[in-house]
Amino acid sequence: MDYQPRPADVEFVLNAVLGATPRLSALAPFADFDTALQAQVLEGAARFVGEVIAPLNRSGDEIGCRFEAGEVHTPPGFRAAYQAFVEGGWPALAASPADGGQGLPAVLEAVLYEWMSGANHGLTMAPGLLHGAYECLRHHGSDALQQRYLSKIATGEWLATMCLTEAHAGSDLGQVRTRAVPQADGSHRVSGSKIFISGGEHDLTANIVHLVLCRMPDAPPGPKGLSLVLVPKMLDDDTRNGVHCERIEEKMGLHGSSTCVMRFDEATGWLVGEPHRGLAAMFVMMNSARLHVALQGIGLLDAAWQKADAYARERRQMRAPGPVPASRGTEAADLIAEHPAVRRILDTQRAWIDGARVLGYRTALMLDVAQHGDDAKARERAQRWCAIVTPVLKAACTQQGFLGASECLQVFGGHGYVREWGIEQVVRDARVSMIYEGTNEIQAIDLLVRKVLPDGGSAMSGVLIELRDELDASRDADADVQRRLAQLRYLTTSVAMAAHAAPTLPYEVADDYLRVVMLAMMAWAWARIDMAADGDARWSAPCAAFRRHALPEFDMRLGMVKRACEAVTAAPAATA
Amino acid sequence: MDYQPRPADVEFVLNAVLGATPRLSALAPFADFDTALQAQVLEGAARFVGEVIAPLNRSGDEIGCRFEAGEVHTPPGFRAAYQAFVEGGWPALAASPADGGQGLPAVLEAVLYEWMSGANHGLTMAPGLLHGAYECLRHHGSDALQQRYLSKIATGEWLATMCLTEAHAGSDLGQVRTRAVPQADGSHRVSGSKIFISGGEHDLTANIVHLVLCRMPDAPPGPKGLSLVLVPKMLDDDTRNGVHCERIEEKMGLHGSSTCVMRFDEATGWLVGEPHRGLAAMFVMMNSARLHVALQGIGLLDAAWQKADAYARERRQMRAPGPVPASRGTEAADLIAEHPAVRRILDTQRAWIDGARVLGYRTALMLDVAQHGDDAKARERAQRWCAIVTPVLKAACTQQGFLGASECLQVFGGHGYVREWGIEQVVRDARVSMIYEGTNEIQAIDLLVRKVLPDGGSAMSGVLIELRDELDASRDADADVQRRLAQLRYLTTSVAMAAHAAPTLPYEVADDYLRVVMLAMMAWAWARIDMAADGDARWSAPCAAFRRHALPEFDMRLGMVKRACEAVTAAPAATA
């Protein structure tokens, strides 16, 4: 069973829960955007993803990318599917019309990538980095570079990579050693080795544009001495640049995507942005890239859920306890969907998917507002939302993508562990997103140490007030969420105070703190869904499952962080 | 880096924490057993596992078992390693000397299998089913069958399988259709198809003895009509029996073990035990088989931990927060082992391994007592312990084996996702143990619905009192554990009462209830370790990590079960 996007679910979240269309049409570039256009784009995307992308998932995993004499061959069908993707205009969905794009809202692109990841994570890796490269070049590229590369990248005619990691420099980019030596003609000669380069080499496009983090000869040490250099595989005269794929990694999953070791050998490149300001140029795309990774988690979890749900509605084993289910008929055994242990898995994972969608799509909307809002205050608020919420979603959604897919595998019993049903592939594929684009531990530190604490928790407070203001305190469920948001606010203050006494404390509680934030936001999301759904059974079972099985973790994590703070304040001199 | 058993850690648990030797030497067959013999056996086992079994793990995964024209070829080296295993007398470690065994305690066999699973899960599957088959045959086989098969199986000269599952009958064995037709000579003709048969076919031994669950023509429907029939691959006259391997499964992991689809085609077999009493014959080996699966979880987690620990002591990334660690020296970046997020993973997983060992080895000791105790009361108490604790350990240790291995993978960052470091194999291999030998959801139901509730919680109370009596309430930590044990006792009563009003409730809370039991027992285990360790730093970091990061789940799950009970008692007629 291949993954099949379900636009109605997504439209409910966008329209009934988030009121996306009026928010979007208030922005100048989307003045004509309406739910009819939205529905049309989503229907088209669902059809394309379901018919073209999804059927290649299994063979993409089993055959995988092959490496031969410096070339990478993508799995059968990938090339044609990618061609169709480009011809359909999908890569350029949210790109500016000036660059050959369709100028649609980022939130539709977010939905498209969520679905594509659910359908075929490996193939989706290829265009996954286009958007970051596009934004990076658009904001920091010289006119000459933009002229040569921007529309090729916007339209997906050429694919792009981000070359950051080196063997000794993973999370610690300050250790990057690849060198860029300025030449008389304004170009740079780039030499060095990069690892874990997704799509570093492949046969999908005629050219590949690498954005390479490197160090110029006069650079200060550490992260403030890094520059970003654009290095194409093919030069303008159609000769091959000094860019070589040395090998591709054998991985746990994601076999449809080549993970390359790249060697740059006196390759010609051009600086993007200021010298030594490479990280700043890169960070432009950080929020949208991280949000896309969060959406991968949601997409993969939805793929796992669809498989488990379908299996549970077909497979019969033993009598379910309790009243006779309507589905029993004359059968001796009941559908496993009727067994409480299976029901719990399905409803709880459905709750994670739906709630995370509310948060993910809202964040994508905020990317649109941050870029196109005509009110500086609104842009700033949107920016703040993205800065705080993005690392939370990246960590929490990718973790759930993996753990939830593993739960869904459990629904299959022994059949889940064999290839046949495709569910084990989802688990293997999903694991990587907890690592790349900043490990989940680094997301937690980014949230607490870099985003929340430096301003004493005021940006976080701002986000919590926004959430509170959208609740209806006369509803019980909403009042419960308000209480949690207030608890989180107090907790933030406690951590900020304890951090003075014990500077390592934030690092010790960062993961728990992130979970508290995610669960508070999920509670908010489900309060909003619950109100919009108005008793519709499609949403009430996952809503109940969320409150019963997922939400209790909120109090647990809150208590863990609290106790850690109290321990420090009780013995203030101990770790200071 | 291959897995390497560390006997000192295990001996500390056996001697200092559990006082195993005096308990064992009080049993007649082990009167001469002492710590010196124990140390000798463990040293020998550690050497054998480290030198012979562990080095084949990687190639066992990558090459895997191959299926060709009905034959299964195990990976290179497996045959020789298995031969060495047999020649070393390891399969017969705990078998009776009368059957060619060494008559050592089950607890040593438990340690051996934990280590072997950590070293090479795939290869360990082969002899993993021997012990169950041995016990089954010893208790239920006719004299003639015992004569022909018992010592061959005890010594591992022939391997054995359990043929239970059919395509439509997984957790629901009542649906088994394989037929056994009695013949005039007392034999049976067996026909039918079985799936998921571990080691159903291979090249390790000259014969393979299948214990097949089937249905005789006059059998009542459902699980009470199942009979157990022994069907050898080779008959006494050295002709091939009608037993065929149709294919082997492609799996997520465990590639070193063949998972076979077996067809029995008028195969000759002999009844084991009474007609229609096949399940009873099989249940003889259930506790020890489930305990071995729990130990697989511990072994695999230890393997993952060893890899992550070694990597974290070598890899340097960024400065750790807080005081300068001694390991910094003149380096710019610190060992990742110094970073709180990594430290937390390593210490918490270590805590699961050490605590679970205390519980696992104690349960193995109870298997020895249940079998050899000369006091009927003591035997009964030991039996009760095994009945209650085994499903808890099977579910909790295999879950931690998978989730904890995935945490350890995270320590490697991107390097964890590629094959090279071997950690992703551990995650893939570990996943299966949450499914087989009864899924973890079925363990939870077994615990609560079949073991705890039928006697109104009295057996569970008995176990809790045993635990309490071994605590020292004058110690703070022990008093905290006492409080938790009492909470669990009250909880059990609440569930029993609520179950009257709502018969489906136990099925809904079974997973949470099992977690409460596991965490209470883990708290007990760590109180015991803490007392025995007397401040030794080897044990104090995981002890602190357990209390800080793992134990808070106790209150969370307790609350979840409590609220579910309260909801039912508040509306007694709703689901009754």
UniProtKB/TrEMBL annotation, chains A, B:
Keyword Flavoprotein: yes
InterPro entries in the cross-refs: Acyl-CoA_Oxase/DH_mid-dom, Acyl-CoA_Oxase/DH_mid-dom_sf, AcylCo_DH-like_C, AcylCo_DH/oxidase_C, AcylCoA_DH/ox_N, AcylCoA_DH/ox_N_sf, AcylCoA_DH/oxidase_NM_dom_sf, Diverse_Acyl-CoA_DH
Keywords noted in UniProt: FAD, Flavoprotein
UniProt domain Acyl-CoA dehydrogenase/oxidase N-terminal: residue ranges: 38-157
Domain of life: Bacteria
Cofactor: FAD
A Pfam family reported for this protein in Swiss-Prot or TrEMBL: Acyl-CoA_dh_N
Sequence ranges assigned to domain Acyl-CoA oxidase/dehydrogenase middle in this UniProt record: 162-266
Alphabetized SUPFAM superfamilies for the sequence: Acyl-CoA dehydrogenase C-terminal domain-like (SSF47203), Acyl-CoA dehydrogenase NM domain-like (SSF56645)
Ranges in coiled-coil conformation: none
Domain Acyl-CoA dehydrogenase/oxidase C-terminal: 277-445
UniProt entry tagged with the keyword Flavoprotein: yes
Family to which the UniProt record says this protein belongs: Belongs to the acyl-CoA dehydrogenase family.
Protein name as catalogued: Alkylation response protein AidB-like acyl-CoA dehydrogenase
